[in-house]
Amino acid sequence: MRVAHVITRMIVGGAQENTLFNCLDLQRIYGDDVILITGPSLGPEGDLLQQGRAEGLKVILLPDLVRAIDPVRDWKSLRAIRQTLRDFQPDVVHTHSAKGGILGRQAAHDLGVPAILHTVHGAPFHPYQSPPVRWFYKACEKRAARQCHRLISVADAMTELLTDAGVVAAEKCTTVYSGMNVDPFLWADTHRLAVRQRLGIRDDEVVVGKIARLFHLKGHADLIQAAASVVKAHANVKFLLIGDGILRDELTQQIRQAGLEDRFCFTGLVPPEDIPEYLGAMDLLVHTSYREGLARALPQALIAGKPVISYAIDGAPEVVIDGETGFLVSAGDIDRLADRIVELVGDKKMRADLGGQGRARFTDAFRHETMTSRLREIYQQILADSAGGDR
Predict the structure, then answer these.
(1) Where do the DSSP E strands lie in the chain?
(2) Could you give the angle at the alpha carbon of 339 between the alpha carbons of 274 and 335, nearest 5°?
(3) CA–CA separation, 390 vs 382, rounded Å?
(4) Locate the Glycosyltransferase subfamily 4-like N-terminal domain: which residues (predicted)?
(5) pLDDT of residue 352
(6) How would you label 310-343 residue by residue, b for 16+ Cβ within 10 Å and e otherwise?
């Protein structure tokens, strides 16, 4: 099978890791011929392909494929993607991200590729946009949805969001959880003492972690506000922020103004392979993003045996089962967020019980091999349908 993946940029992020695992699994496990078409990995997040994990994968870098809307560069990118696909002659084109998804599906549709899929890692439209911008993105996605055979949702919530917005019919969507290498997370606690010592965290301190870019709508300011209440209840709590981004200085200032400098620790940008050891240093994870398909940090924490407190948005309720693997909080409810953190910080047994249930429920479901096997079955199904004239 010849498979071409298209994604806007290969920064360090969940959608990118998902895509890389799928490409490499298709080659390694099934012997498929795979190419990855992408643009420059610009931004503070870092370049996933520069970490040596894509060895053996043919990567086609298109300099005009950028995230921002740029009519001239977008037209050039469309032509370049179309030519690359024409040369490669894929059986399957699988697209990711907003720009890569729009242009990749158009190019594949123009060429009559037998199987065209798009993974919805997170919808490009959301309530925090202006109405004209939201309408524009919905219209683009609705048109692109007609140019592919199947949409892959990383969570059932993504399908619900798309169908409610009138973008696509539910029967055209299939949920496949975003896969990862789960084994390092199962052994996360073996790094606990070493990482804590390196970060200056005492054995008796309870660590509340958050893994996310320091970016808008990620909710770091909410956590800082809640932390002011948490430290009044527990003198032994520390907050560990994994990630970097444009809001670093602003968040540092908020922490300083709240008098919490000694309670927060920033790690900066962390390579994905180092995330398990930082999870091992934590006692629970907090996720306060206002929009995200299904953040990889949630199943990663649960597989590591750590309970999660999350805003009840998008796909989070599918893994953060309230009262079973963690707690859900309405987005923006700072008081409730603080109360739940206080509760878990003060109850070691509850942390162990919730984290243990999460590990048992989600370890196998999120193996990258499970994801790739399911996706390849969908590829084969679409190809069989196409061969039979059912497009």
Answers:
(1) 2-9, 33-39, 58-61, 92-96, 115-120, 150-153, 173-175, 206-211, 237-242, 264-268, 284-287, 308-311, 326-329
(2) 105
(3) 9
(4) 31-177
(5) 98
(6) bbebbbbbbbbbeeebbbbbebeebeebbbbbbe
Domains of the chain with bracketed CATH: 2-179+367-389 (3.40.50.2000), 182-366 (3.40.50.2000)
- C-alpha distances out from residue 300 to 152, 282, 342, Å: 21, 12, 22
Backbone torsions φ then ψ of 204, nearest 5 degrees: -85, 0
Note whether 30 and 112 are within 8 A (CB).
no
Using only C-alpha atoms, the chain has a radius of gyration, in whole angstroms, of 21
Nearest-angstrom CA–CA distance, 288 and 244: 16
pLDDT at 135 over 70: yes
From the centroid of its chain, how far is CA 205? 29
* CA 123 – CA 327 distance, rounded (Å): 24
305-323 pLDDT tens trace: 999 999 998 889 999 999 9
